[in-house]
Amino acid sequence: MKNRSFIKNKLKLALLAPAVCFSLMLTSCEKDVVELDPFDRLTEASAFTTPERVELAVAGVYDAAQSGFYAGGAVRGYPFGAAHVEQGDNRGEDMLNLEAFYAITYGSTYNAASANNVYHFETLYSVINKANIVIEGVEKAVADGLITPEVGNAYLGEVRMLRALSNHELLVHFARPYNHTADASHPGVPIRTIPVNTPARVEEARQQGRNTVKEGYDAILADLDYAETNLPETRAAGAKISRATKGAAIALKSRVKLHMRDWQGVVTEGNKLITGTTTFTSPIGGYALTASPDAPWASNSSNSESIFSFMNTANDNASVNGSLGQMYFAGTGGRGLVAISPLIWNAAFWPANDARRQIITTTSRAIFTRKYRDPQTQTDWSPIIRYAEVLLNVAEAESRLGNSGRALDLLNAVRGRSTDQTYSGLSGDALTQAIVNERRIEFLGEGMRWKDIHRLAKEGKFGPAGIPAKVASTSNHIPQYNAASGTFPAATIPFIPYDDFRFIWPIPVSEVASNPVLAAQQNPGY
User: Fold this and answer.
1) Residue 141, Cα to own-chain centre: how many angstroms?
2) Best exposed site among 12, 45, 467, 510 by fewest CB in 10 Å?
């Protein structure tokens, strides 16, 4: 199969749906549906008529995930081109919102009509619906003999992995964590496996309510199991990171099982990608930690550590109002709207000699990450999962299972490439806490902080038992980055406890207005 870059400057898939802008159901609400056969789009009738068009349809699901619509049809990287990083960071305390762009997310003042959470919800369901349309189309193409079953199964593996990724993102923002109830029987999100692309299906979907969280995770794992079975272990250099692989499906399963607190399941999945005792590599995909913590960012389209990322290019990106380089980079050309928080910068568990403290740009106002460094052409890729996460996922699971020796080895493999201050002699809760702390450092600026807060909050032991207190924006934060100065940062945006309704986002007003079942199932408090 061709490298996905084959598609980036060609036709984007826009499968036409009924002219009802109902985001749970329809493929996209990017534009009013006016032209029945637009010259630059493929209709469903034509999208699965040649092998080349089938591949283009599959690429269209990636494109929907990388550059979905925003208010007025703008592209701001919803959901996975940039927005999952920016929203995930601003829901936590380790990145510092400086301007109005993420103020609602950062201050937890959202409601059912707030743009950031509304478009995250709507674009995630757009990805899911496009995936479902492609699944149906690929199955027909195989049945018609247009493509071989092997090729068809690989395509299905790709879009099912993207569907699983989207469903998990929905669950960590719009539903309580897996352990909120003993059997995860509390409300999750609607799980859709049938395309909503006819008037009859729209009406059927209008009456669908929320599945339980357990049902959601079961569906995610079924998709990832299928993807693992049918995806290739590797791809050509240009697509190795930007296109789904067997290793990516396994890596995501280790994350999902961590959220489920299935510790042995995390170890089982992670072990498929781990060989070695102190230096670790993957027998599938050849993944390994890069020698330097900066290497995945200096070459984010080609390195040994990045398992799956979304490609951004100079002419297909999240734009000046959404790209990672614009939002996070404070050097030439960057807007620098999100900085590193003094809270994490001053954390005692982050060594002063840690090389990750050098992946920064310092201005007269704040300290910023340099993980994203191309604001001019905005080609920084959007990270989804790295090998470092697999190692730390398994480290935490091993620690919770009482296997302290291996947990320490995995933790120190990640920590040791950045600092000589590695851990020894830790076990039990102290070891688990060290691993969670290491995640805060290692994944800083990658949108991972909310995922960890979400899965740990109910337990209330290794992280904040709710939405953490945060530093508010001021004109000058520089003194706060040096605790010895006596100007230690005050977290003036208050802590919000786990039981508060604001811990999860509301179902958007556009959804509850269209679906009476969902209207009765709105998250309490909204």
Assistant:
1) 31
2) 45
